[in-house]
Records
---
Amino acid sequence: MTTLQQPVVVVGGGPAGLMAATVLAEAGCRVDLFEAMSSPGRKLLVAGRGGFNLTHSAPLPEFLDRYGAHREWFARVLARFSPADLRRWLEDMGIETHVGTSGRVFPVTASAADLLRSWLARLDRAGVTIHTGHRWLDLTADRELLLGRADGTQKRLAAAGGVLALGGASWPKTGSDGRWTTILARHNVALVPFAPANCGFEAAWSQTLIDRFAGAPLKNLALSTSSGRSTVGELVITRYGVEGGGIYPLTPVLREELAVKGRAVLFLDLKRDLSEAEILSRLLRPRGKNSLANFLRKQLRLEGPVYSLLRECCPPPAFNDPVGLAARIKRLPIILTGIRPLAEAISSAGGIAMAEVDASGMLRRLPGVFVAGEMLAWEAPTGGFLLQAAFSTGYSAACGLLDWLSRPVPCSA
Ligand SMILES: Cc1cc2nc3c(=O)[nH]c(=O)nc-3n(C[C@H](O)[C@H](O)[C@H](O)COP(=O)(O)OP(=O)(O)OC[C@H]3O[C@@H](n4cnc5c(N)ncnc54)[C@H](O)[C@@H]3O)c2cc1C
């Protein structure tokens, strides 16, 4: 039996959980938030170390395309809390944002630590009690929350309802370790195995390429897969293979190809501003006494890491034949031999199967228990689509819980 004297609980202090707690507390609920680590928001702070993309300015239809098969589910979630709502909400907390040249949305000056500090102050003002060092262990038969403390003791808590926002399984040292899957599996919630998303891939580079160019960026490439998926972006040569924003949107396709065939092929267009015919006509110009390296530098500005990669991945007969070389410059095959470990990935694919939740994120098998953020089995590329999903699903789950508790819901969709 639930009563509104009982608190509502949020478990997980990442952006999805913090957002759910904010909405619930500001709607008048007594909120207890439990976080396994000694402080909340650790992955958010890690995200803030690089380019901190909070969301993206793409028009909504294009934005929603980034969620692939789960586009329609996200259409409902983003209708409740859109990228524009997020920017206004951040502004309310004193975090101004701007749109970068890539369309990504960044804070103007604030760091992730500034954002987290303002947010925790807002939660404090709204009366949310944050219990750090509390790991959710189970839901008992009488629907109480079983929590384990860092000192080994346990406590039980009756709640009117709750939001779980336990994250995915990449960067486990931030607390997002995916250990919660065993708990939900015990409750017969269907799970999709975790897999790395937005991650690096392995390639068997020569020692020479590694020694000379590990860490070198390759800019303005068109990247594509055997199945025809393509994107434009930057790639970094690493000691183990390749990494970078250009390959992240292709992760699902390359991961699948690796799983089926044991290897995957990434095709690079090294000169996307020139047609193959134009490249060929330049290659057919008289070479004089120039070495091929010098000639390629002068005619096509192919030099440094791009030239070495071309050398490495183009078989000698094609390299020495202008027609073959022009074709490879436009479509250089890079053989990928593996995917980097989940612990290193920016995000994870997998988690709770989307069929297990309703439109607000309530678990069909556990009424009153809502889930949000990266623990759900959707995936999206970097560029702000991950954090937007965490914020919006946290918001939507909180609205769903308010509705379930027959409390006024601040959001319309
Ligand atoms: C290096 C890096 C850079 C990134 N950059 C960006 C970026 O620029 N833009 C972007 O959109 N996204 C970025 N991301 C991704 C983004 O940070 C995540 O998608 C987002 O943090 C997910 O939010 P979440 O609330 O779902 O989960 P998390 O942030 O993972 O939070 C989950 C929380 O639940 C807690 N928890 C787990 N299990 C339990 C338990 N049993 N009991 C209690 N608590 C538990 C964890 O300790 C954690 O605090 C980046 C990620 C990384 C690693």
---
Amino acid sequence: MKHFKQISIIACLIFIAFIACQPNDKPEKESVDRKKEEAKTIDVSRYSGNINIDGKMVVKEVSEALMGALSDAIAKHGTAGAVEFCNGAAFPILDSLAEFYGVGLKRTSKRYRNYDNRPDTLDKAILDNLAALGDQGVEPSPVSMKFSNGDGIYYAPIMTKPLCLQCHGLKSRGDIADDVWRKIRELYPEDVAYDYNLNELRGVWGVYFPAEYRARKGKAEMPDIPR
Ligand code: HEC
């Protein structure tokens, strides 16, 4: 019986690892719609008060919303058109989700496309640390910290997936099509967010939890994500 228990635990772990490793760069339209429906009913009192748990939840919801909007934009307007979409829609989407969750939200990177996403001193230290771990072959994982005033911040690494390379990939390898490249240069003349490889650290999500977030209760209306 004991033996059986061990085997089922191992089987379970393998199964979890298998699920966790499934690429999710192309969320099905259906699952995006379902997610949106579910998100509408999110009760922010669901916050556990532990920023590692709550940060993980917020990053998951927000990155799925952004990913859904990006995939829709690519399907509707092509990749070059989606660059324009990201240019106008990324900040409004993030701002409305930040308001919904009652947190501060940012995506930042050492090699960024939009100057407004540039890292501050703390972001830089975190990014350097995660990159150094990556160089040693350690997979970057989330980091959180609490400040003396009770506020906290949760960082989660953003890794590149195949889809990302269309706009952030290696130029010399032809990852970025000519029309996409022209659009990027036109909208972001100072851009350095290209020449990334697959599974490379692209940046981090930063979720800033004000001390009073734990007291947040009640349902908020999920904002409409522009499509
Ligand atoms: C259609 C082109 C396109 C695709 C595909 C794309 N991005 Fe971007 N990405 C952009 C644009 C444009 C911006 C700048 C948005 C803005 O102005 O806020 C951006 C910004 C970012 C930023 C914020 C930091 C910065 O550089 O300004 C991160 C992080 C990021 N992308 C990661 C990813 C990841 C990860 C993927 C794949 C899941 C991805 N992107 C796919 C076009 C794209």
